[in-house]
Protein: ATE1 transferase
Amino acid sequence: LKVRVVRSSPPSSQFKATFQESYQVYKRYQMVIHKDPPDKPTINQVRLVPVSFEDPQFKSSFSQSASLFAKYQMSVHKDTPSDCGENEFTRFLCDSPLEAEHAPNGPECGYGSFHQQYWLDGKIIAVGVIDILPYCVSSVYLYYDPDFSFLSLGVYSALR
Structure:
């Protein structure tokens, strides 16, 4: 048995070289031990989108995200439709006091507010609203399609 400590942040060359293999071990563990279904979202189905109406991905997914937010709020929190319309969604999860910043030594995506979108079969099934800051990542909110609650997307998002 050989144990190796590999720097994950910032990602070392060893981390990058073994990432796929490590991910496959993790996925198998989750399926065997925690009975995760094989169709649980994968790396390629998670998109990090800056919260900006000038960003094409954010703009093109806005309506779908807002609709999912309303479905979640009404199902899980029993909000009324007027409590979770597009204006309320924008105010609560899109308007951020953080300004986007791309520091030379920062992450490739930069700093600021992001929507971490979880896609399955061409539709968004969950969104983690996060702030990426110089010394931490802050989870602001997570909402998901209640039809996919069996995937434990809140737990998956927190671990991710």
Summary: The mean pLDDT is 88. The two ends are 27 Å apart (CA to CA).
